[in-house]
């Protein structure tokens, strides 16, 4: 049983954190692993949506979430946070993006800052899980195709047209029925009228 | 023609707006991109103070109330029951605030002699464990022999814990006192308690100890200790080279490693909300009791 480290306060991550880190094989050991992840995190902050292997994406996602949450909780006047941002973002203009674009974007966010999807694998070649990692609120079109409420979706247009046709057919039928009964009634009344005269 | 005119009027309007904003920035509700920087700088102090919660300061005083950070060993029900048991034990005896580096006197009922007690005085060199298994180690030198006793904080055989000198040291663990000269951890067994005036922060003792020559129990030179003064005297060139090779400067940037070592602030505030009231009540009642005692003792002396 270990005592929790109380020297620093961290805010809770909104994603699932596995109990142990993943080893990303690297000849430089743990330092090399972090160097790999630094490249990925930099790419994620820069492009906002990247496709990569699942293991590395899941690992980099945790680090990106931590980086953004640190930036939100301490701001850019906090020296250790600035050092951390300087270490994790290899391109230094992204430090400005982190504090001036991403922090205001996620300040009042109640969910995780990133999203990860499983991507399809290549049919030929080695079986490697792929993933798409993206920042929430990015400018690209959504990856999920769930647009069941979109009125302009082709299926919805066809369904609307079919419903319209069905309704029109029904109306026509009803109108026909009404017309027939009226004809019958009028015929009957005509007969009634004709009867006494005859 | 009409389109062209409309466009030009819009442009004129935009230009007028831009000039207006340049002149009086404070009035503009929709600042331009270049002005965002200025606004950010004004807003930042507010953002920094947002996350501060004074109840979280308890984590330094009662670190054993926080659960183990390893998620494989977490069990919310067990943790809650342990906290209740700890509070019950604390209502029985006074477990004072102390830190690594404080000098304590612990009285336990002697396991080998019925009805007798055993008192040990020493400097706290390590605190570890969480929940009911929290423990601390005291070290002293008695008759030129270094002695360490490890006590469990919530052990029912403990009769009293008294803080003789409340202070912190420069390091989180003082295990290097084992290899230090004996005068740095020699304390008289009849030491008098030093009382700090109320409301003062816990003082940090900046003393730097001197280590004995090698062999040592651990490779102290690799641990970046602040409380050791003469570590370089005992090193060979080989040790310095290996220390450089063994350094891990990237570890402080490993955000997830640090995250896995701690309990997040949200979970901590839940725990402190649960136990803080009772702890505070106990502290207040203890203070009242001690005041009563201080009032009564001089009367007896006079009589």
Automatic annotation (TrEMBL), chain A:
The keyword Ribonucleoprotein applies. Keywords: Ribonucleoprotein, Ribosomal protein. PANTHER family: LARGE RIBOSOMAL SUBUNIT PROTEIN BL17M (PTHR14413:SF16), RIBOSOMAL PROTEIN L17 (PTHR14413). It comes from the Eukaryota. One of its GO terms (molecular function) is structural constituent of ribosome. Residues 179-198 are annotated as: Disordered. GO terms for cellular component: mitochondrial large ribosomal subunit. Belongs to the bacterial ribosomal protein bL17 family. InterPro entries: Ribosomal_bL17 (IPR000456), Ribosomal_bL17_sf (IPR036373). This is Large ribosomal subunit protein bL17m. GO terms for biological process: translation.
TrEMBL record, chain B:
SUPFAM superfamilies: Translation proteins SH3-like domain. Keywords: Mitochondrion, Ribonucleoprotein, Ribosomal protein, Transit peptide. It is found in: Mitochondrion. InterPro entries: Ribosomal_bL19, Ribosomal_bL19_sf, Translation_prot_SH3-like_sf. GO terms for molecular function: structural constituent of ribosome. It holds the Pfam family Ribosomal_L19. One of its GO terms (biological process) is translation. It comes from the Eukaryota. This is Large ribosomal subunit protein bL19m. It comes from Euphydryas editha (Edith's checkerspot). The lineage of its organism: Eukaryota, Metazoa, Ecdysozoa, Arthropoda, Hexapoda.
């Amino acid at each position: 049983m270990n005592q929790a480290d109380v020297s620093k306060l961290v805010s809770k991550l909104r994603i699932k954190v596995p109990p142990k880190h993943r080893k990303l094989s690297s000849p430089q050991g743990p330092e090399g692993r972090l160097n790999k992840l630094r490249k990925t995190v930099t790419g994620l902050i820069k492009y906002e949506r990247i496709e990569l292997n699942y293991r590395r994406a899941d690992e980099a996602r945790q680090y990106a979430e931590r980086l953004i949450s640190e930036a939100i909780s301490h701001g850019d006047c906090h020296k250790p946070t600035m050092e951390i941002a300087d270490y994790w973002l290899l391109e230094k203009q992204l430090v400005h993006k982190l504090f001036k674009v991403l922090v205001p974007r996620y300040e009042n966010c109640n969910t995780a800052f990133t999203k990860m999807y499983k991507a399809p694998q290549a049919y030929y070649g080695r079986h490697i899980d792929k993933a798409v990692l993206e920042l929430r609120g990015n400018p690209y079109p959504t990856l999920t195709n769930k647009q069941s409420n979109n009125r302009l979706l082709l299926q919805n247009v066809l369904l609307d047209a079919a419903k319209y046709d069905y309704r029109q057919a029904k109306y026509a039928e009803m109108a026909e029925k009404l017309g027939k009964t009226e004809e019958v009634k009028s015929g009957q009344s005509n007969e009634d009228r004709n009867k006494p005269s005859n | 023609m009409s389109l062209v005119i409309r466009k030009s009027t819009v442009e004129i309007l935009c230009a007028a707006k831009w000039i207006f904003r340049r002149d009086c920035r404070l009035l503009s509700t929709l600042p331009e991109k270049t002005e965002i920087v200025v606004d950010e700088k004004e807003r930042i102090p507010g953002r920094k103070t947002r996350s501060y919660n004074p109840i979280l300061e308890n984590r330094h005083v009662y670190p054993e109330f926080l659960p183990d950070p390893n998620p494989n060993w977490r069990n919310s029900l067990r943790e809650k029951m342990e906290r209740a048991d700890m509070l019950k034990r604390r209502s029985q005896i006074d477990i004072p605030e102390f830190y690594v580096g404080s000098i304590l006197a612990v009285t336990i009922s002697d396991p080998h002699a019925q009805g007798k007690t055993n008192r040990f005085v020493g400097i706290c060199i390590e605190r570890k464990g969480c929940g009911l298994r929290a423990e601390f180690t005291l070290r002293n030198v008695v008759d030129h022999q270094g002695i360490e006793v490890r006590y469990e904080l919530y052990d029912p055989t403990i009769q009293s814990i008294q803080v003789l000198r409340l202070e912190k040291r420069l390091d989180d663990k003082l295990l290097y006192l084992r290899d230090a000269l004996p005068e740095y951890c020699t304390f008289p067994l009849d030491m008098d308690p030093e009382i700090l005036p109320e409301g003062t922060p816990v003082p940090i003792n900046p003393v730097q100890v001197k280590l004995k020559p090698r062999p040592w129990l651990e490779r102290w030179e690799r641990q970046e200790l602040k409380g050791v003064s003469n570590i370089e005297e005992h090193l060979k060139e080989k040790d310095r080279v290996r220390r450089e090779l063994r350094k891990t400067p990237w570890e402080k940037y490993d955000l997830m490693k640090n995250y896995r070592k701690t309990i997040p602030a949200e979970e901590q505030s839940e725990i402190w909300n649960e136990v803080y009231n009772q702890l505070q009540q106990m502290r207040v009642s203890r203070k009242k009791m001690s005041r009563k005692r201080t009032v009564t003792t001089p009367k007896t002396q006079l009589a």
